[in-house]
Amino acid sequence: MAISIFIVDDHYMVIEGIHSLFHHEKSVEWLGHATNAASCLAFLKQQLPDIILLDINLPDKSGIDLCKEIKTLYPTVCVIGLSTFNQQSFIEKMMANGASGYVLKNATQKELMDSFETVMKGRAYLSHEVAQMLRSHEATDDAPVLTRREKEVLELIAEGLTNNEMAEKLFVSASTIDTHRKNLLMKLNAKNTAELVKLAIVKKLISFS
Amino acid sequence: MAISIFIVDDHYMVIEGIHSLFHHEKSVEWLGHATNAASCLAFLKQQLPDIILLDINLPDKSGIDLCKEIKTLYPTVCVIGLSTFNQQSFIEKMMANGASGYVLKNATQKELMDSFETVMKGRAYLSHEVAQMLRSHEATDDAPVLTRREKEVLELIAEGLTNNEMAEKLFVSASTIDTHRKNLLMKLNAKNTAELVKLAIVKKLISFS
DNA sequence: CGCACCATCCCTTTTTTCCATGATTTTTCA
DNA sequence: TGAAAAATCATGGAAAAAAGGGATGGTGCG
């Protein structure tokens, strides 16, 4: 019984690459591909693959969110995250949203095949490099939990607003902002504003683009 | 006469994808691939392709630097930048270092073929999306040129050091640091340190991991 | 109810940054 | 070699942030 796979990636070359890796492989059935979240969901209404290879970055939605949706709608399919980035936060979010595995795009045919077989047995698969990285980062990189207000203030700090400006904008007194600021420095263990902003970006507490 | 190509990319799937796009194409001769800068340079000592498809991100060296080296050693080969990122600074640096073109990894076979033909005629090729983006971002997103010292100070600021600490570390007076700092604020057009750090990261003037 | 947590507010002192202005030496490179 | 750019240093004042303290009301939860 062949394993049926479906791939979601906005990079034509990656789709083509995986296709060419498996098109001669009898044990793998290529159901097709999608280049965005919407057409992926449309496809799944018609047909369910055993495994979905899902890129982290899609044009219309993050792969992380899409993974969650897929697992809610179709709990039986296995999702394997696919990315060029060996980034802990991505991997964790992906796995937290129900993914069965995570492989990097520099994986070989053998690694991919391994991942298929492993997840079909109901176990999780992390590619070699990913697993290694997770071990090394284990104790360090944990993002603190911020309150709604703290996040707001953090974003405004990074925009370059002063306490007084933030106070006006958020309709509170400057002292309140000052307190939030102190708490942020404490929670992120930052020495000052500069380090605070850097850590906030590194830990993906604020988004920018 | 077939166009000979060589590809440098650390992602197995991308190599495989491009290979599969062209292996049946008589007008394109596939010379091989490398997954890092060192083995690329080693290959070029043996044989020169017409076109090198060069990824921006390599494990041992940035594709931008490698492009410069290649064009210095072998001015006749055409380099086409290859990336998932549609980022102005990358594109500009790549072209400034002698690249003949820049295509995204979601390019189709036709687009790639176009790019080959265009650069072989001695003209530059930018894939559709790239050209469109450059037009829209024209006046805005340009990273300023920083001096060696300014970059050093910028990194230390993001680490959370104060002027006095940086002065000690760099064996200069605090006033000197202050001047660099002012110049940084001016060059990046930042209101204060917080925005400075954010912009520095957004514009990829400092690296973190 | 008591407890933890959040959001709000206030005060003081010290440190650091921001701004303006000006100047000298060193390096770079056309 | 000569001009331009970079790096260096300084003074002084205004503004902002950091660090320390303490305080009040509200909400959710076992």
TrEMBL record, chains A, B:
It comes from the Bacteria. Residues 4-120 form the Response regulatory domain. Gene3D superfamilies: 3.40.50.2300. Keywords: DNA-binding, Phosphoprotein. It comes from Pinibacter soli. Residues 139-204 form the HTH luxR-type domain. This is Response regulator transcription factor. InterPro entries: CheY-like_superfamily, NreC/VraR/RcsB-like_REC, Sig_transdc_resp-reg_C-effctor, Sig_transdc_resp-reg_receiver, Tscrpt_reg_LuxR_C, WalR-like. The modification 4-aspartylphosphate is found at residue 55. The keyword Transferase does not apply. CDD domains: LuxR_C_like, REC_NarL-like. Pfam families: GerE (PF00196), Response_reg (PF00072).
